[in-house]
Design brief:
There is one protein chain. The chain is α/β, with parallel strands linked by helices and about 210 residues long. It has one domain (about 30-200): Rossmann fold. Helices cover about 30% and strands about 20% of the residues. It is built from six helices and eight strands; from the N terminus they run H-E-H-E-H-E-E-E-E-H-H-E-E-H. It has a six-stranded mixed beta sheet with strand order 2-5-1-6-7-8. A two-stranded antiparallel sheet has the order 3-4. A hairpin with a 2-residue loop joins strand 7 (about 185-190) and strand 8 (about 195-200). Helix 1 (about 15-25) crosses helix 2 (about 45-55). The chain is globular and about 45 Å long. The termini are close together.
């Protein structure tokens, strides 16, 4: 197994968000006192919605949105910022403080505080990247094809952001070609009409 692979979850996969929440709480801490859980997938795949619902199942677990750390010029070059402002304080059991990016004003604006909770969710494209995996207790991948995800995202954001999406999809394609997350996922998450279905991830079957 890749040394930068999160600890596999026991089989069978959890049948509900509540069951997943119980399983995550039972994992050993991975970043100081924190169980850091990544929610990754293509842009438009539903990561933010899923993370919000999982947070609720965890009793209000904090969620770090990687869109707050990325910028127009650094769509995927936020690793050092994440390590310095989030990972290092949490690994020491301290409150993390990080600046969030304003995508309209194109500058970092307000400061967020993140206290070390038993489970902290990190959601965004690239949350399961190689540099973060040694600090993760679990990696979840939203199992939605890239083109389906991108079409959803374009519809959501409207015609005004067509140019942005053209640049984003190429950047995302290059990122995952060089640093894929899905092969290291503990669970694959599929959205259904009645909720979510979780399947055993590639890392658990390797």
């Amino acid at each position: 197994m890749d040394p930068a692979t999160p600890t596999p979850l026991s089989a069978p996969p959890p049948a509900s968000l509540d069951a997943l929440a119980r399983r995550l709480r039972a994992l050993p801490p991975s970043c100081g006192p924190v169980r850091l859980v990544a929610v990754d997938g293509h842009a438009g795949s539903g990561k933010s919605t899923f993370a919000g619902r999982l947070s609720a199942a965890l009793g209000g677990a904090p969620v770090v949105h990687l869109d707050d750390l990325a910028t127009h010029d650094e769509m995927f070059a936020w690793t050092d910022r994440f390590h310095e402002q989030v990972l290092t304080p949490l690994s020491l059991g301290r409150t993390a403080r990080y600046r969030t990016y304003d995508w309209v004003r194109r500058r970092f604006a307000r400061q967020e505080e993140l206290r070390p909770a038993p489970v902290v969710l990190v959601e965004g494209v690239g949350a399961g990247r190689r540099a973060l995996r040694p600090h993760l207790a679990c990696l979840l991948w939203l199992e939605v094809p890239e083109h389906t995800s991108w079409e959803r995202g374009r519809r959501r954001d409207g015609a005004d952001l067509t140019g942005f999406w053209d640049g984003w999809t190429e950047a995302e394609r290059l990122h995952f070609a060089a640093d894929p997350s899905r092969p290291y996922a503990n669970l694959l998450v599929q959205q259904r009409n009645e909720g979510y279905v979780m399947l055993t991830g590639p890392v658990a079957t390797a």
